[in-house]
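Q: Protein A?
A:
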Amino acid sequence: MTRRDDPAWCTPAHLPDELHGFDGSVRDGLGVGAPGKLGVLDLALAPRGGTTRVVRQYQRAPLHIYRPIHLDPHRPDMAFVFLQQQGDGFVQGDRYRVDVDCADGSAVHLTTQASTKVYGARDNYATQLLNLRAGAGAVLEYLPDPVVPFRGSRLYQRTTVTLAPDATVLLGEVLLPGRVARGETHCYDLYRAELEARRTDGALLFADTLRLRPGGAGDPGSPATLGGYQVVGSFTALSDRMPPAELVAALRAELAPVPEVFAGVSELPAGCGAGVRVLGHTSKAVQAAMHAAWDRARRCLLGIPAPDLRKG
């Protein structure tokens, strides 16, 4: 078995070909595998005493969590887990891996403490692997704060979700154009985020890739990508608690009046749920639309509203 202090444990098994061109030796700074460059977080959560608690925890700096809190009055059993990172953000050569196993009947909300900064890279790139598992009847939400890619940054993220047929999983992510106040608008080298969902028997439900590469194929300014918008958000609702067509209709109705955004909602393959993409010119507008989608999905699938996380 591969050890958790081995870079292979934290590196995707099959890297996209375009990343191999960025895989150079770090000339100025710590290279891949150096202390503090391999972040590992391995969590298992399960129902205990009427609430969801952490039953297994392994963390390797710079990734860590504090004690989960329970702040949703409509779902007091739900554990809110804040994923945290020592330091300011991703730098070249970082390899992070997060594994979260939510047992049958558990309720978990994963988020981050602040926006994720991705610093410029001259010799290498950064990766993050996120493996989420939701057991029978479990509810799992993953809604991190936005990603902020700096000039010259390179980030590859791969999220794999494995869920039981009667589990409910809500996922969201927002990508900002960069440090706009410093004149950086989509000046990164590469941003690639892959999402894959499977049943517990291994059957593929769907796969989605958001790939942006300024100045090349996948340029954010192209009509085929962001089409002049600056901020992009993605929201995914996986559940069998409501027919997908009805969920799509509900999300469309919720997003239609949200100002200053362009939003689309589609039924996902295999009848597993609905997918949302939101485009806008400001973080505030896109995040308002993302919250509206999260709230409506919760009301439809769980019968409760989204809580106030008091962030920002």
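Q: Protein B?
A:
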Amino acid sequence: MTKVIQMTRTGGPEVMELIDVTLAPPGPGEAQVRHEAIGVNFIDVYFRTGLYPQPLPAGLGMEGAGVVEAVGPGVTHVKVGDRVAYAGRPNGAYAQARNMPAAALLVLPEQIPFETAAAMMLQGLTVQYLFHRTVALKAGDTILFHAAAGGVGLIACQWARVLGVNLIGTVGSDQKAALALANGAAHVINYNKENFVERVREITGGKGVSVVYDSIGKDTFTGSLDCLAPLGMMVSFGNASGPVPPFSLNELASRGSLFITRPSLMNYTARREDLEAAAASLFGVVGSGEVKVPVHQRYNLADVAQAHIDLESRKTMGSSILLP
């Protein structure tokens, strides 16, 4: 028997139940992974609430790290005993162990601990594609990154510093501002004290930024557009405050022929070769120490409801993990 988190209905944190299941042997193309650590991300909340629909009953969690305990027929790129990590569908990482498509697994370098891996895979691969593929950032670029003290944000601050990019970050408290600055942000705006649009214009001498990375959604969308320079790119990659409401394309034209995209990690890593390339890039900057991924919150698997409560109330900083 193994313990897993299951939900039979959508709703608040209380819909997540800890149950015992019997884990079958892995099928063709599958591997069985015994988790050492599990990542907690805001996308998990979207699935829990039903914002992102999925068939029920269902598991939650898209990120984990552990050891391969068994492999099914046809699996060749991982073997029993391998240290592995992953990020992506299918949901079900909130578990002591699980069977999953082996094609999603990446062999974890020895110098990267399991907790670090569980904290960085989804968030780190997200920053990798945002900075290298959605927009190929270069030294000297000035960007705006919302939620700069969150798990994705702190990795973004450090990776921007590595690239020579000037990252302006928004945060909700002075404590979070200090954390973002310590991790490489060039400027930080506390949106509870300052108007972030006015402050961005002040920092950039009225020019605006070339790219805005916005995982907040509804509350920051229009302001984010107002921060862009003409021909700038709006990257809306999340909706922590709710989905972006419908808007007219004239909103882009009137601000200087702006571009907009709504990317997803799943699309950027759908091909195995793209997943491996992105992971090699991430493992490289983390393994070298250029980007550090400290775990700021740890919860037992049975306490997953508290983890979601803390995440939704914006009490957390950096990365959170579950320990099975």
